[in-house]
Amino acid sequence: MSKYFFIIVFLLTFLYSTGYTLKGGINYTVQSARVESFDNIKLQINIAKYKKFANDKNYNKNLILINKKTQNYKDRYITSYSDGDYTICYKSNIKNSYHYNQNGELIGISITQGKGFPSKRITYDSSGNFDSVTLDVSKSEQFIFDKNKKLVAHWIGKNCYNEQGELIMTRE
Q1: What is the pLDDT of residues 43-100, one digit of tens each?
Q2: Strand, coil or helix: 113
């Protein structure tokens, strides 16, 4: 009897395991996102390497594009935020993005590690010191932690929430 039971279980397991492909992603809690985010990051970069990005060389044009809600322009992607800051990512090197204040002054550089999802973007301030890390879980969800490992933002789609789940910012 037990011999037949094991054969039936084996056949059912084999049939079901070869017949279906699992689909889905990894779900992250704040704690699991925190652990993943802080694994293998540098605490400082040589900022001299990024000197030419200290001021937005296309500041006037980018302001016009931001006002027109243009996100994809010739050689760059533009993301604007409700507080007036914006980010430029050049198509020639999409691993790096440059964060500017509303006056076009560099306030941070993000360097992407990994391909696809999950991946992380490590942000350094304008002096090259580690500032924060973003874990991109999917195209529409990101966790952002400060250098002290505190959750400062959880983006879901175009909305950004704080640690208490309150809406704090939007992006276009």
Answers
A1: 999 999 999 999 999 999 999 999 999 999 999 999 999 899 999 999 999 999 999 9
A2: strand
Q: How far apart are the C-alpha atoms of 160 and 120, rounded to whole Å? A: 17
For residues 87 and 81, give the distance between their C-alpha atoms in angstroms, rounded to a whole number. 8
pTM metric for this prediction: 0.74
**Cα distance between residue 165 and residue 77, in whole Å:** 28
Q: Using DSSP, state whether 162 is helix, strand or coil.
A: coil
Would you mind telling me the total number of residues written for the chain in this entry? 172
How buried is 161 (Cβ within 10 angstroms: 0-12 exposed, 13-18 middle, 19+ buried)? middle
* Sign of the dihedral defined by the CA atoms of residues 36, 40, 43, 44, in that order: negative
Instruction: Please tell me the distance from the alpha carbon of residue 171 to that of residue 142, in angstroms, as a whole number.
Output: 13
Cβ contact 7:118 at 8 Å: no
Q: How far is Cα 96 from Cα 73, in angstroms, rounded to an integer?
A: 17
d(CA 37, CA 160): 18
